[in-house]
TrEMBL record:
UniProt name for this protein: peptidoglycan lytic exotransglycosylase
Signal peptide start and end residues: 1-17
Keywords: Cell wall biogenesis/degradation, Lyase, Signal
Organism: Sphingomonas xinjiangensis
Catalysis: reaction(s): Exolytic cleavage of the (1->4)-beta-glycosidic linkage between N-acetylmuramic acid (MurNAc) and N-acetylglucosamine (GlcNAc) residues in peptidoglycan, from either the reducing or the non-reducing ends of the peptidoglycan chains, with concomitant formation of a 1,6-anhydrobond in the MurNAc residue
InterPro entries associated with the record: 3D_dom, MltA, MltA_B, RlpA-like_sf
C-alpha cells in the first residue's frame, strides 16, 4: 500500500509538492500493547485531545558514526557507499526492543525474500537463512537472534534524523448528529486517475487525477470546493467528525480511529486523494510569523488553528490536497508492505536507502527513539539516507511522543551476515 510517511512535526513543517499526483497518504497503524484505551463514555472524552503537550524527551548521547567518505548526490544506499558498523553485541539493545523487533521482522520475512530491494544492498536470497531461523526462534532469546544472524552496515556518513507518527483517535459518529457535523468522505464516483504513460512514453510512470467536465478533463475539486459542498452528489459520507482541525490532521496522518458516541471504535484509512499538491501549513504559518518559539509542534499548530477559527479555516484551505477514506477491518493498519505495523517498532523509510522489512538500530539524542526499528512503511516526506519516521501506535502516549519527535544521531542497518563483504568486493571489482 502506498503511504505518506508523515511525522507530525516533519510533515506539518514541510512544503511538499508531489508533482502530477501528490505522494499518497496510506494507513497509519495500530498500537503496541499495552496502550491505555480512551474512556468508553462520551462524557469522559476530552473535548480537544490535542491539549496534550509534546512529550518532553529524556536526552541521550548518540554513538558516533564510523569514519566514511561522503558521496554527494547518491540516489540509493549502494551509491552512497557502505561501511561496517559496530558489532551488534556492543549496541545497547534492550530485551524489550529486541523482542518487538523480532516479532516485526518475522512478519516482514516473506516480503524481504520476494521484493526487489530498491536500495541496491540485498538480494532476496540474502534473507533466507535469517528468515528460516526466525520462524521458531524463542522471543526470550530475541537479542541473540540479531547477534547471530546480522551485521551492522552504515550507509554514507550515518547521520540520522528521526521524526514520529501515530494513529490518531478523534471523536466521530457513523451518523450525522449534533456535535458531529464534519463529513468524512469516501472516494468520489467521478474521480478519475489517468496513467499518462499510456499516451506517451516520455510520460511513463506519471499519473494525474481529475474529473470530466463536459468534454474536458479538468483538475478535481480542491479542499475549499469540497468543504463548500462540491461532493454532495458524487461521494458517500462514511462517517462524521466532531472537529474540523482533528480531521484535517487525520488526513495528513492517513488513517486513524473514530471514538464513537457509544464508546465503540471505527477505524478508517486512506482510500484516495484528489490529485492536488500538498502544502505543509506548519511551514506556511512559521514563515508568516504566526508560530512563536515552542509552538511549531503539531500541538502548537492545532492550538493556533482553534484559537483563530476563521483564519485557521483559511490556512487549512491553502492545502488544496484532500484525502478520502474507507472503513478498515481485520488486522491493524497496514504499512507499505501490506502488513500490520507495530507501535514502538515499525518505521517509515526511503526504500532507496533502506531495504523494506530490514531492521535498523538508531542511536539518537533521546532515549525513546534509541533502539531497534523495522522498516515496514514509506512516506512522501521521508526521503534520503538515514531518515526514519518512527511509529508510536495509538492513544494519548503515542500522540504526545509523536507530536514532538525530532531526534538526531546515528543509524546502522542490520543486514544478513556476508552482505557487506559482497558489496565491498563489488565496489573494488573483486
Amino acid at each position: 500500500m502506498r503511504v505518506w510517511g508523515a511525522a507530525a512535526l516533519a510533515v506539518m513543517l514541510s512544503a511538499c509538492s508531489g508533482g502530477l499526483v501528490p505522494p499518497e497518504v496510506g494507513t497509519r497503524p495500530a498500537a503496541p500493547p499495552p496502550l491505555r484505551e480512551r474512556p468508553a463514555r462520551e462524557s469522559e472524552l476530552p473535548e480537544t485531545p490535542a491539549h496534550l503537550p509534546a512529550r518532553q524527551p529524556v536526552g541521550a548521547t548518540p554513538l558516533p558514526p564510523m569514519p566514511s567518505r561522503a558521496v554527494s548526490g547518491a540516489t540509493t544506499a549502494a551509491a552512497a557507499g557502505v561501511v561496517a558498523g559496530p558489532p551488534i553485541e556492543s549496541l545497547p539493545i534492550t530485551q524489550q526492543s529486541a523482542e518487538r523487533a523480532l516479532a516485526a521482522f518475522r512478519l516482514s520475512c516473506g516480503s524481504l525474500q520476494r521484493r526487489t530491494d530498491g536500495s541496491g544492498l540485498t538480494r532476496g536470497t540474502d534473507w533466507a537463512a535469517s528468515c528460516q531461523a526466525v520462524r521458531g526462534w524463542p522471543q526470550g532469546d530475541a537479542r541473540d537472534f540479531f547477534v547471530r544472524h546480522f551485521e551492522t552496515v552504515q550507509v554514507g556518513e550515518g547521520a540520522a534524523y528521526a521524526t514520529g507518527y501515530y494513529e490518531p483517535e478523534i471523536r466521530g459518529s457513523r451518523e450525522r448528529r449534533p456535535g458531529y457535523e464534519v463529513p468524512i468522505y469516501g472516494v468520489p464516483r467521478d474521480l478519475i486517475e489517468a496513467d499518462l504513460g499510456l499516451f506517451s512514453d516520455s510520460l511513463k510512470g506519471k499519473r494525474v487525477r481529475g474529473r470530466v467536465d463536459g468534454q474536458k478533463f479538468v483538475p478535481y475539486f480542491d479542499r475549499t470546493q469540497i468543504e463548500q459542498g462540491a461532493l454532495d452528489r458524487s461521494a458517500d459520507v462514511i462517517a462524521w467528525a466532531a472537529d474540523p482541525v482533528e480531521i484535517f490532521f487525520l488526513q495528513v496522518q492517513g488513517s486513524g480511529r473514530l471514538r464513537l458516541p457509544d464508546g465503540g471504535v471505527m477505524r478508517i484509512g486512506y482510500a484516495g486523494q484528489n490529485g492536488r499538491d500538498y502544502t505543509g501549513i506548519g511551514k506556511l504559518m512559521k514563515d508568516r510569523g504566526l508560530l512563536g518559539p515552542g509552538q511549531t509542534s503539531m500541538q502548537g499548530i492545532m492550538a493556533y488553528l482553534r484559537a483563530n477559527p476563521e483564519e485557521g479555516r483559511a490556512i487549512m484551505r491553502e492545502n488544496k490536497s484532500f484525502v478520502f477514506f474507507k472503513e478498515l477491518t481485520g488486522a491493524g493498519p497496514l504499512g507499505a508492505l501490506g502488513l500490520p505495523v507495530t507501535g514502538w517498532t515499525s518505521a517509515a523509510v526511503d526504500p532507496k536507502f533502506v531495504p523494506l522489512g530490514a531492521p535498523a538500530f538508531l542511536s539518537m539524542d533521546r532515549t525513546d527513539a534509541t533502539g531497534l526499528w523495522v522498516a515496514q512503511d514509506t512516506g512522501g516526506a521521508i526521503k534520503g539516507a538515514n531518515r526514519f519516521d518512527t511509529f508510536w501506535g495509538a492513544g494519548d502516549d503515542a500522540r504526545a511522543i509523536a507530536g514532538g519527535m525530532s531526534a538526531r544521531g546515528t543509524a546502522w542497518l542490520l543486514l544478513p551476515r556476508g552482505v557487506l563483504g559482497r558489496l565491498q568486493g563489488s565496489a573494488t571489482g573483486q
